[in-house]
Design a protein that fits this description.
single chain, alpha/beta, Aminopeptidase, Alpha-Beta Plaits, 2 domains, 4-stranded antiparallel β-sheet, about 35% helix
């Protein structure tokens, strides 16, 4: 029967391409959240053709939701003939703005040289389309299956996933007994299994000063100079210390196996958005946003204290130095066990399809697995999908058609293993 499964997917190649193109042509740009409603309605219409029951869930009180830009998600479920486990494929529908540098229409979904080119092809509408074809193939070849299959299209992953997977997880949509196994078709390569991600701690540091006339700076206290002292200490002390921290997590790329911190932005003094010359003021405030990525071997309190200790030392040693710290958000590292059922099922399917052992990796950045683990307390979850992660958010983003076909076979095979209780 698995040969029939493979044949069905091979015969569905044109359908897979057309489905991916249709999804990419919805310009679901986030922010602000364009075209969410027509995209999820299209997914529901498609899934109903295969006997799925589809529901819409709108995160009304969540960041970004307005009547113009509703945070609307779709969850589609197909029940089997008998009770059993549930396999859920979750994909986000939002994409980042196209930016500059494209040689193809970002939302044209052109087919060229065996690839589909467009914003969201790789991250991750190609993965969504692949999971739909895999689910339809399995249902066609095994109409008497036990358990259930779910497909979801969720929003706002690119901005944290709070109006999407986090909202659904809070409603119990990613917890037992409803769901047992979750596969997120993020573009981590067709022969790799992503077990989880590093932790993240975002914070805003503000240094305080005293406003005065710019021609008499000695009467004021420059908050930007205070922030310069913070930068100097980060360069001298914090960044070298982070570079020494290593993890046993198989994070890719290699550089992300260390602790990292990115200075996401600095703003002080004269604000943007004015015309003409700036006013001559000594800035009394300067703000820095930091993006700290940490390892399974670390904990968030130590991560926070590394920054706070530098700021407190400056407060003791630097005249008039004062600061405030605002924590923006935090997510702990997560790593699914290699012996978890969904990992073993996908690993077996990769061996069957490619004749090689899968690579097990960890993502350098977070994705929606964080909400499934933290809120849903469901840890039988991985990311697996076609596409090359390096292409995400790039101009001329693309996904290989053959990669999607092969990944669909892996997904369908894994569903068969999980719902047939073969582990």
């Amino acid at each position: 029967m698995l040969q029939h499964l493979s044949k069905y997917i091979n015969d569905s190649r044109d359908d897979l391409v057309a489905l991916t193109q249709d999804l990419v042509r919805f310009p679901t740009i986030n922010p602000p959240g364009d075209a969410y409603r027509p995209c999820v309605e299209y997914i529901a219409k498609r899934m109903k053709r295969s006997g799925f029951h589809c529901e819409f869930f709108t995160a009304v009180d969540y960041p970004g939701h307005t009547d113009t830009y509703p945070r609307i998600n779709v969850v589609c479920r197909r029940e089997g003939k008998r009770p059993g486990k549930t396999v859920h494929f979750n994909s986000h529908i939002d994409v980042v703005p196209p930016g500059f540098g494209w040689t193809f229409d970002p939302f044209g979904a052109a087919v060229h040289d065996g690839k589909i080119i467009g914003r969201g092809t790789c991250d991750m509408k190609g993965g969504l389309a692949t999971s739909i074809i895999a689910a339809e193939a399995y249902i066609w070849c095994f109409p008497d299956f036990s358990g259930a299959i779910e497909i979801s299209g969720t929003v706002d992953e690119e901005s944290g996933g709070f109006g999407g997977v986090a909202y659904l997880a809070e409603k119990g949509m990613f917890s037992k007994p409803r769901v047992d196994h979750v596969i997120i078709p993020e573009p981590l390569n067709k022969d790799r299994i992503c077990l989880g991600h590093r932790g993240v701690w975002w914070a805003e540091i503000e240094t305080h000063g005293h406003i005065a006339h710019g021609s008499m700076p000695f009467l004021g206290d420059c908050a930007v100079r205070h922030m310069g002292a913070v930068m100097e200490r980060f360069e001298q002390d914090l960044f070298p210390a982070l570079a020494q921290k290593q993890t046993e997590m198989p994070v890719v790329p290699e550089g992300a196996r260390k602790s990292t911190m990115n200075i996401n932005g600095i703003q002080g003094g004269q604000t943007d958005g004015f015309t003409g010359l700036p006013s001559p003021n000594v800035p009394d405030s300067c703000k820095m946003t930091i993006d700290r990525r940490y390892l399974l071997e670390e904990n968030v309190e130590d991560v926070r204290n590394e920054v706070v200790s530098i700021l407190d030392q400056l407060k003791l040693s630097r005249p008039k130095f004062d600061y405030s710290l605002r924590e923006l958000w935090s997510v702990e590292p997560t790593m699914t066990d290699r012996d978890a059922p969904v990992v073993r099922a996908v690993a077996d399917a990769i061996r069957d399809e490619f004749g090689k052992e899968p690579d097990y990796v960890i993502s350098p950045g977070t994705y929606d697995q964080k909400h499934i683990a933290r809120i849903g307390h469901l840890h039988d979850c991985i990311a697996y999908g076609p596409g090359v992660i390096d292409l995400a958010h790039q101009p001329d983003e693309w996904i290989g058609i053959e990669d999607m076909v092969q990944s669909a076979k892996v997904m369908a095979n894994a569903v068969h293993v999980l719902l047939s209780h073969k582990l």
